[in-house]
Amino acid sequence: MHDPATIEAGIPDDQLLPLRVWLALFSSVKQIEAVVRTNLRESFASTLPRFDLLSQLYRSPGGLTMGEISARLMVTNGNVTGLITRLVDEGLVDRLQDEDDRRVQWVRLTPKGNKMFSSMAPANQTWVTQAMAGLSDAELRQLQTLLGKLKSSVAAAPKHPRGDEDPSAG
Amino acid sequence: MHDPATIEAGIPDDQLLPLRVWLALFSSVKQIEAVVRTNLRESFASTLPRFDLLSQLYRSPGGLTMGEISARLMVTNGNVTGLITRLVDEGLVDRLQDEDDRRVQWVRLTPKGNKMFSSMAPANQTWVTQAMAGLSDAELRQLQTLLGKLKSSVAAAPKHPRGDEDPSAG
DNA sequence: GCATTATATTTTATGTATAAACTATCTCGC
DNA sequence: GCGAGATAGTTTATACATAAAATATAATGC
Question: Are A125 and A118 in contact (CB under 8 A)?
């Protein structure tokens, strides 16, 4: 039961639950990501970041600014610049300047990009559904509820907590 | 309630639960990752992949082979080569050849690496615990159970499912 | 023994990601 | 108007990640 990587690091066993849940979360996501990534590559010669980006644009027919994309994908601005550049090269999206604010870039799906996402989305849904087929609807809803609470919890947590305190003391 | 990115892609609303759970999982992990990454950088001038690698080595005092590290971190061999090279440069790990099989590289923590991980582990545990402070122990255990089921489910799913079928038909 | 095959790791080319510095533009207060 | 700061995005340097090809060694079958 005791985890050698934490015993010697001085972490009592009864404090390990959040850490264990975090590791389980992390590996679940990596596992599913691997499935989706492999399938996206084999079926569409595409990638997960590209798919996520197309997905965001798909649900925003009016387009999105670079900053809004960055916020929604939870990645840096510079990352979005690179992703968009590649997608523009592939003809899946186009960019246009804002009329009023010349700092702002609007990004939209091209018809080709729209068609591309429309064919990817059902496939992606199938892969994810099959990966989660071992969970009942009730379990999925339970998971959804818990993840909702987790999201609030993380948002409420201090951004730069001191890492040298005993978490059991709080 | 209806999600425009799926309605138009022809996905009925009652089939969206797994997809929604997947998105919630994905964003939860990214959220927590961001916290941990920021803190690792600010407190230890380090990164999450380095920390995960040190953690694996810490709990294997006899060392690990490159392949075993790759399997445990769920990343490619080539990725591990690069990570280890950087950690060797920093003096946190060392490599040695297997006596019997000259293809095999054994990797172990140096005393410096051991000390480094020992100081990082409690801090990491604090950050994660604080991020999850909004969930009760009962909820964390519930989450742990569900993630265990999810892991089995993903492992049991076909690796290369056809993505062009209606998942409601299965 | 020797060719074949399998295994362990590295290399190569490319894509994705960050943080920090930088450029350009806008807004606000005066 | 104008200067100070804020905001949007890009660039730079570097790290992390993949897939595929290459290298080196080991194990197997004959």
Answer: no
